[in-house]
From TrEMBL:
The keyword Ligase does not apply. Keywords: Oxidoreductase. This is 2-oxoglutarate oxidoreductase. One of its GO terms (molecular function) is oxidoreductase activity, acting on the aldehyde or oxo group of donors, iron-sulfur protein as acceptor. Residues 66-217 form the Thiamine pyrophosphate enzyme TPP-binding domain. InterPro entries: 2-oxoacid:Fd_oxidoreductase (IPR051457), THDP-binding (IPR029061), TPP_enzyme_TPP-bd (IPR011766). GO terms for biological process: cellular respiration; small molecule metabolic process. PANTHER family: 2-OXOGLUTARATE OXIDOREDUCTASE SUBUNIT KORB-RELATED, SUBUNIT OF PYRUVATE:FLAVODOXIN OXIDOREDUCTASE.
Length: 257
């Protein structure tokens, strides 16, 4: 009987070496694990394993340091861009990025996020937007959609009561200090590949000193949304993408990747 030899490059899944064997605490169907894998892959492909520094504040990703074997720094809630600024200014040769959720980045960290990006700090802000506070009970976030129900707006978000969803990525694209601003997702293979290219472009731009980059990843929170992983992906596609359309919003890097 002929044996079919499967070469490593043809494997459907290969875990990056930077990802260790610690079991992840994320809920089944959560987008965080996929994004973690992409970050690890890009860092490895760039050969920056020993020079990458991640900054994770409070939120679902607070334990990101447990899964990727690079240098990490914890930050107070919302303050990751300020911490990343200090690290990058002290060690300009390091690949410095933040990893933040929408409640952290767009609520308590709005000031730090906008001013770090506007200063053109050579860092990458990775923005996981699932339109809810996933870790603390499913409360309404700045990015919660109109009409979307959460534990703190059980009848749905209303403009007259709660205001409108905040489009941080559109705001970032207007700032002079940003060189690359994009919105991606990871619910399909094609989307995952696009998100990986975006992360690579952002990381390379930061190392080239071209300014700040923000990579938003529109994501699911099936636990907070009270949906199965499959239904959460469908809801995201039918609702989130209408208000948060995917694609590059700004690119002055001059890169074709």
């Amino acid at each position: 009987m002929n044996e079919e030899i499967i070469s490593p490059e043809n494997l459907v899944y290969k875990k990056p070496e930077l990802m260790n064997e610690v079991p992840m605490h994320y809920c089944p169907g959560c987008s965080h694990g996929v994004v973690h894998k992409l970050v690890a892959e890009v860092i490895e492909e760039m050969g920056m394993e020993d020079k990458a520094v991640g900054v994770s504040p409070v939120g679902c990703a607070v334990f990101a340091y447990r899964y990727l074997d690079i240098d990490w720094q914890e930050a107070a809630h919302g303050r990751a861009p300020a911490v990343a600024t200090a690290i990058k200014r002290c060690w300009p040769d390091r690949l410095v990025f933040t990893y933040q959720g929408d409640g952290d980045l767009a609520c308590i960290g709005t000031c730090e996020t906008i001013h770090a990006l506007n200063r053109g700090e050579n860092i990458v802000v990775i923005f996981i937007n699932n339109a809810i506070y996933g870790m603390t009970g499913g409360q309404m976030a700045p990015t919660t959609l109109m009409g979307q129900k959460t534990s703190t707006c059980p009848y749905g978000r209303e403009a007259s009561l709660h205001g409108y969803p905040l489009k941080m990525t559109e705001i970032a694209a207007t700032l002079e200090g940003t060189c690359y601003v994009t919105r991606q997702s990871v619910e399909t293979v094609a989307a995952i590949r696009s998100a990986k290219k975006a992360l690579r472009k952002a990381f390379e731009a930061s190392m080239a000193g071209k300014g700040s980059s923000l990579v938003e990843v529109v994501s699911t929170c099936n636990s907070g949304w009270k949906l199965s992983p499959v239904k959460a992906n469908k809801w995201m596609q039918e609702n989130m993408f209408k208000f948060y359309p995917k694609g590059d919003l700004k690119d002055t890097t001059g890169s074709e990747k």
